[in-house]
Amino acid sequence: MGIDMKLIVKNYDIDASEPTVLLHDNDCLEIGVKENDRVSITGSRSAVALVSRSDTLVEEGTVMMPAALLERCGVTDGGEVNVVYCQNPDSVRSIRRKMDGEKLSKEEIESIVTDILNNKLSKIEISAWLTALYINGMDIDEIADFTKAMANTGDIIEFERQPVFDFHSLGGVPGNKITPIVVSIVAAAGIMIPKLSSRAISSACGTSDFVETFCNVEMDADSLKRVSEEVGGVFAWGGAMNLAPVDDMVIKIEHPLGINPRAQMLASIMSKKVAVGATHLLVDIPTGSGTKVPTIEVARAYARDLMDLGEKLDMHVECAITYADQPVGNAVGPNLEARECIRILEGNKHPASVVEKACDCAGIILEMAGIPNGSARAREILDSGEAHKKFMEIVVAQGGRPDLKSDDLVPGQYSEDIIATKSGYIHSIHNKDVVAIAKAAGAPNDKGAGLMIYLKKGQRVEAGEKLFTIYADNEAKLRRARETAMKYPPMDIEGMLIKRVSSVPVR
Amino acid sequence: MGIDMKLIVKNYDIDASEPTVLLHDNDCLEIGVKENDRVSITGSRSAVALVSRSDTLVEEGTVMMPAALLERCGVTDGGEVNVVYCQNPDSVRSIRRKMDGEKLSKEEIESIVTDILNNKLSKIEISAWLTALYINGMDIDEIADFTKAMANTGDIIEFERQPVFDFHSLGGVPGNKITPIVVSIVAAAGIMIPKLSSRAISSACGTSDFVETFCNVEMDADSLKRVSEEVGGVFAWGGAMNLAPVDDMVIKIEHPLGINPRAQMLASIMSKKVAVGATHLLVDIPTGSGTKVPTIEVARAYARDLMDLGEKLDMHVECAITYADQPVGNAVGPNLEARECIRILEGNKHPASVVEKACDCAGIILEMAGIPNGSARAREILDSGEAHKKFMEIVVAQGGRPDLKSDDLVPGQYSEDIIATKSGYIHSIHNKDVVAIAKAAGAPNDKGAGLMIYLKKGQRVEAGEKLFTIYADNEAKLRRARETAMKYPPMDIEGMLIKRVSSVPVR
Question: How far apart are CA A342 and CA A335, in angstroms?
Fold first, then answer.
């Protein structure tokens, strides 16, 4: 990946999230502080900052402070402040207990979570926390406490109308545009499902990234309540609400380490469900190579964890382990996925992989609500047009056009077909390469960018036939996406001969 | 602890050790970078920086860069740079392998160590590394590779004269002023011992802190070689030389976490011994409550590790487990310790705890060099005045006065006696409280600051008798030290009755 970019330079002074002051070595000895200790600095107001020491960059008797901190201490350049050693927060001791493999109490977990939220823990400390969590883990009681503590860092929505159903996908599979279909079917069945989605983190297109091509996804908590209770469902963006906000702060530290500790991941998912007041939750666990969940065994372990955690949180949780060895459906990218999704709601029976996954997931939710033969009933609701009617109600409630049609969603005007150079069977489609190509084409920011994939695993292709088309909103990105596709071909084509076993012994 | 301090404020822009640039969210999507990813920034030159994202603090099309980074990229405010995603160093993958409990190869360990040295790893990554080391540890082969990699980050001193003896104390016990005595005895016996010491890290007085009261401790590698080869020994400060410099960078991250992973600690000690070319090493392991090594069992484990590591490094290592339940000798603080140390070299037989520990340690080194009955021989060298003669040679070689006398070292002019309020036996002396009082009095920066302790464990004290005297160079610090002593009394006095056992059953 990686495009380079020309930018205009501005000098600045940094980073209110982790304010650091520079003190002379001798003053540090005097005050009794070491590098990365904390000091409390008092001008007309007080603030806490981390210490960086030097015997060259700063004069004795001077403290160098970034502008944002000057402001917070109510002091100006050349003024005087009082500087005194400030103990580490108690939560640092709890982090150390997790390093030692101890079980943490509810209070300890709460204090870590609130100290992260309030910028009281440094990057060093949060990194140690996540590493300790990654290595030593948490038991299900700790994860339940962790989930509640994270939920309590933000708003908790309380619906008058009960029960509250929710749906979540662990993600990791491109083209997974089922959410608006599932929500529409479920809401059409009279079950309230205030579904909040996310934008892409590492993927090419999050649910909110394609839903916002046809309606507004930013919604505050009041609108969420009102629309859900009146219409029965939404497909909005969670990020506009203040739900478990600490999660975003943790992601920033997890990401460069390339880790997602199980406890953190489970608490992250479930805290948002607690915050939205969910009483019933279906979790889709896409499973297959190139996703977060490579095997059925791993998927089962996640399912077990999620259901155990649901029990601790008084939430009825069920899980659907779904096939994710290749993209779901044919379209990847905002407009393309929106079009494919709406076409199905309009009555199109293809791609079957999307229709079936949506009906199966919606069906489980119907059964959780006491409706028998859920999947068949879901299919009826979809086929009868009830789902489309409900979908349009939600779209309009979210500020979309009442005459929305799937064909309103158009792919990018720059496109290129990728052609099979040999005949054979599609042996595999690599999710990661599909995502890389779509991102290179500009997804999810460029709404027209993405791929249409014409052939799926196991299908026969003839040399010269189209494998997929790349779409982009401008030529440079189309070129970049094509280069990515050449470098990382997303499809393997093979003859059906997997391996020739010879009876002649190897010499 | 913790004194507060008035300082003049200067606005600044931060921190060349971990340069961070601020980019707009949309530009980040375009470039394909997330928070705490790296970008390569090219003006007339290139540099790598970490990414911080915002959609409010920075305009689209703009990169905000601290002044030091502008300089390194050869660009000025308002100029243009090229910004492109830059992969994490490979060492991040090795850090993750250590998180997963894997054994790292020599090459992986080297790359982590050099990337830390060259500021290529962020605080987040170094913190994760140390946490993983703390939890998952290293086997002795890895620690040997780690030791060599750390040594190779700096200069390696090669002595013409061989063998090279060295001495190290794990520290943690106040008043441990034996180093100049040990070095003087050993060098007087014709054995070369180029001993490098440190300043206080968390203690009240490191060896270099009191040695510098009577001679210069800053010495470059050439002087170290010359003086050691001519005179037979030094007691200089290691910090003036470029020996295993990566260690200081790691300490800054370890310190706020309050951890010292075994592998890091062993490699840290041994890398400096490798760098100084030691062929023979005695390690003093002070053991007792309130030190780094609480029990004999833990001390034995450290000794085993150090000797195994010595074998891998082709270094003859022996260990002395020493008693450290209370301060060594009576004096704590720079001038006070220097005076007590020099008095012993001048012929004073007290305090016996210092004399005996010094002769026992020197004796082991003599035996390592093939001299029988080491301890007795060391005592002869001390009693005969040969050690004092050698001591004065070293002092003069380090720029000290040839007429140096112990009484040249005077305690601070402000003092206060602390009196026993009841009669009884000294039941315990708390090292940590002794250190806290000496630091409150101004040690190690104020050379006259410290304590003289008159009574040790098990001795009888009468009400009204002096327990210890606090010395300081100014009144405010004397007051602060007294307050510390009142709050954290360093001595427990008890009647000899430990517990009364009654035959009357408890109701």
Answer: 10
Question: Is B481 an 8 Å CB contact of chain A?
Answer: no
Question: A257 to chain B: which residues are within 8 Å by CB?
Answer: 92, 95-96, 124-125, 128
DSSP-assigned states of every residue in B248-302? HHHHHHHHHHT---HHHHHHHHHHHHHHTT-SEEEEEEEESTTSSB-SHHHHHHH
Question: How many beta-carbon pairs below 8 A join chains A and B?
Answer: 282
Complex confidence, ipTM? 0.83
Any chain B CB within 8 A of the CB of A27? yes
**Tokens representing B101?**
């409990």
pLDDT in tens, A361-403: 999 999 999 999 999 999 999 999 999 999 999 999 999 999 9
Q: Tens digits of per-residue pLDDT, B350-398?
A: 999 999 999 999 999 999 999 999 999 999 999 999 999 999 999 999 9
Give yes or no for a contact between A117 and A153, defined as CB atoms under 8 angstroms apart. Answer: yes
Whether the CB-CB separation of B15 and A20 falls below 8 Å is answered with: yes
Contact predicate B207/B287, CB 8 Å: no
How many C-beta atoms surround the C-beta of residue B304 within 10 A? 12
DSSP state of B394: H
CA distances to A325, B103, B121, B236 from B153, in Å = 46, 22, 15, 21
Which of A172-186, A194-208, A448-462 has the weakest average pLDDT? A194-208
Q: How far apart are CA A441 and CA B110, in angstroms?
A: 39
Mean pLDDT of the B260-274 span: 94
Three-class SS state of A491? strand
The domains located in chain A, with CATH, are 20-86 (2.40.40.20), 91-137 (1.20.970.10), 165-240+268-406 (3.40.1030.10), 414-494 (3.90.1170.30)
Phi, psi of B437 (to 5 degrees): -65, -45
What's the pLDDT at A275?
96
